[in-house]
Amino acid sequence: MLGTDCNTAKWDEAQRMETKPFTGSFTLQEPIGEEGISAAVKVMRSGRLHRYNTAGDELSETALLEREYAAYQGSRYCLACASGGYAMQIALRAAGLRPGEPVLTNGFTLAPVPGAIAGAGGRPVLVEITPDLVLDLADLEAKAGSGKARFLLLSNMRGHLVDMERLAALVDAHGLILVEDCAHTMGAAWRGKKSGNFGIAGCFSTQTYKHLNSGEGGFLTSDDPEFMARAVMLSGSYMLYGRHGAAPDPSVFAGIRLDTPNCSGRMDNLRAAILRPQLAVLEDSIERWNERYRIVEQKLRAVDAFHVPVRPPEERYVGSSIQFLIEGISKPEAHDFVAANKALGVELKWFGDDEPVAFTSNHKSWGYVEAQQLPKTDAILSGLFDMRIPLTFSSDDCAQIGEIIASCAKAMPLKGAA
After folding, report:
1. Rounded to an integer, what distance in angstroms lies between the CA atom of residue 69 and that of residue 59?
2. What CA–CA distances, in Å, run from 202 to 100, 218, 368, 416?
3. Does position 5 have pLDDT exceeding 50, yes or no?
4. Handedness of CA 239, 242, 247, 248 (dihedral sign)
């Protein structure tokens, strides 16, 4: 626990330590490869950017990407769409969410998750989390046991997987419809079963800071033909569902196509062309992320004042970011800790502030969500720090970053930091 005598002078002293500042960028991603650039240029030269603008029996870049992602994911169907948030929204609608109906979801997640519930007409019911940043299954069971909620939108927040076997048993016992938000777990798995394959649908993002980068974009995957037919129509197919790469048989659409609204949110061929080469090397990218994650993780776990979320042996994770908790840190001390790291070039995000900074909003700043009491989650968020690990960082960069964070902790009166 922190002491109470942290002040500006101490932080100035910490910043004058003989610690070499880090000079890299936490927002710089790897460039699009030449194969992706060539494919994108080919699409632009053709003028056929719209996914349904095809000639004869050719498959568009988007349809080819759907086929390839379905194969990677091990799912029967895949729909490429405008964003991961849009994928969640139409997943809930395609699964039968009714206006005003409650949807269980993580008390700690990013704003697009409750936003998708609200956008689909639902009402978020927030579930507590544990210090390992996953759903508190006891709280989930208590809230599911009320019988008021049919849906669980599970957010695999910051890439952490809850015990998916226990979750699946709980979902079955309470008859919940499970939709997985896999924006941070593309390629992750639990006992070899990929994230996104545990419920009716998996929702993925290809926004710049995710595991594939098209600026914006997303996927929706499922093995349920009627669900996916509704999702395809919701995405805005203009009755051209036969031009998809991984969609149900056209016969499945017969009773669906005229009763499902068009809520346009398609992916275009330009983004698909950029993504296909990235998907081909995704497994290599995951290994590179995890190598970098482990270097930073080792440095942080050496600081007793930090709790770094435990990675269960059953989990295959994708370490594109890292989190740690400092129990008992005050708001002024948290601000000072973030500032000290930033002075040495390390950009940490803190989820315990009164106002959101960039993506760090928490449930208290979602004004469209009914206020709910989450004491366990609030205690965790008050000391939760987060950091991106771009693939533009080298192994040496990651070691230096870990050392800077640890040195800033040791410069504070942190119990166990020295």
Report:
1. 15
2. 23, 11, 25, 41
3. no
4. positive
- What are the CA-CA distances from residue 394 to residues 30, 289, 381 (Å)? 12, 10, 29
Structure tokens, 38 = 């060539």
Check residue 190 and give its pLDDT.
98
| Spatial distance between the Cα atoms of 208 and 215, rounded to a whole number of angstroms | 5
Q: With CA atoms as reference, report the closest residue to 264 among 51, 76, 71, 14.
A: 51
Question: In the chain, what is the greatest distance between 2 CA atoms, to the nearest angstrom?
Answer: 73
Where would I find the beta strands (DSSP E) of 110-200? 123-127, 151-155, 177-181, 189-190, 193-194
Q: Pairing relation of β-strands 77-81 and 218-222?
A: antiparallel
Residue 327 is classified by DSSP as T
Cβ(401)–Cβ(393) below 8 Å: yes
Nearest 5°: the CA angle 341, 344, 345 is 90
Q: Indicate if the alpha-carbon torsion angle 408, 411, 415, 418 is positive or negative.
A: positive
Residue positions counted in the chain: 418
What span, in angstroms and rounded, lies between the C-alpha atoms of 129 and 137? 8
Instruction: Give 76-101 as a 3 state SS string.
Output: CEEEEECCHHHHHHHHHHHCCCCCCC
Collapsing DSSP to helix, strand or coil, 351 comes out as coil
3-state class of 143 per DSSP? helix
Task: Kindly list the domain boundaries of the chain, sorted by start residue.
Answer: 8-29+282-410, 34-280
Which phi and psi (to 5°) does residue 202 adopt?
-120, 140
Q: Which pLDDT belongs to residue 266?
A: 97
Per the listing, tokens 């991603």 go with 29
Give the containing element (helix H, strand E) for 404: helix 395-410
Q: Which of 6, 24, 1, 2 is nearest to 340 (CA)?
A: 6
CB contact at 8 A, 305 and 416: yes
Distance separating alpha carbons of residues 157 and 181, to the nearest angstrom: 8
Q: Which of 310, 341, 342, 308 is nearest to 327 (CA)?
A: 308
Domain 34-280 annotated CATH 3.30.1490.100: no
List b or e across 105-127, with b for residues whose CB sees 16 or more CB atoms inside 10 angstroms. bbbbbbbbbbbbbbbbebbbbbb
Give the CATH superfamily of 8-29+282-410.
Aspartate Aminotransferase, domain 1 (3.90.1150.10)
- Segment 155-184 shows an average pLDDT of 98
> Span 386-394, mean pLDDT?
98
Q: Can you give the pLDDT at residue 358? A: 85
